[in-house]
Amino acid sequence: MTTDLPHSTTAGDDIFTLLEEIQGIARTGLNFTENVYDKERYNHLLQLASRRYAELLGLAEPAVRQRFAEELGQITPKVGADAAIFNERGEILLMKRSDDRKWCLPCGWVEPNEPPAEAAVREAREETGLHVEVVTLVDVFSRKANAGFGPHSMIAVVYLCRITGGELTLSHEGLDLRYWPIDAVAASDWHGIHRQYALAAYPVWQAHPA
Description:
The protein has helices at about 15-30, 35-55, 60-70, 115-130, 195-205; strands at about 80-85, 90-95, 105, 105-110, 130-145, 155-165, 175-180. It is an alpha+beta fold. It has 2 domains: about 15-70, no CATH class; about 80-205, Nucleoside Triphosphate Pyrophosphohydrolase (Alpha-Beta Complex). The strands form 2 sheets. Strands 4-1-6-5 form a 4-stranded mixed β-sheet, with helices on both faces. A 3-stranded antiparallel β-sheet has the order 3-2-7. A hairpin with a 5-residue loop joins strand 2 and strand 3 (about 105). The radius of gyration is 20 Å and the shape is elongated. The N and C termini lie far apart (about 45 Å).
């Protein structure tokens, strides 16, 4: 068993980073402690975090509190899977998202009992209409919770994939779908840290061309 202390915040962190750590400590503590006084303290921490989340996100505080209360225990980051798909010219397939209108690799959250590689293949099919297979792992990336990306920390597992079938088709989740030279997409037009994913995937594609 390992016991990790909370990560110290830095000047680059914001309120969501702090709230993520506070509510994680509270939810983990509520699950493991048997001391009634500690339970009161953890409940108070969770109440404070829920109140601030509600204010920042425009949600009802009881709804936020209930959502946290339904999942107690060791709190871990959300896990996503991404598919890096290149054409023969070395251009990467990107989708313009309907939520923030920025470009991203085909991606999504890993579902319960689903290996990340299968999630990447599924998301590629759902978002692009293409059938793909995983060639190799590109890398694993982590991202803190913050106002720019959202209220949850996350881990992204990025795979180089090759097309095995299907037809390029835009889903309801996107506004556009096309291959891009990586440098042709402005830094401000990338969703989250997807530019980092694409840059990491390019040399892997060069080493494993389809």
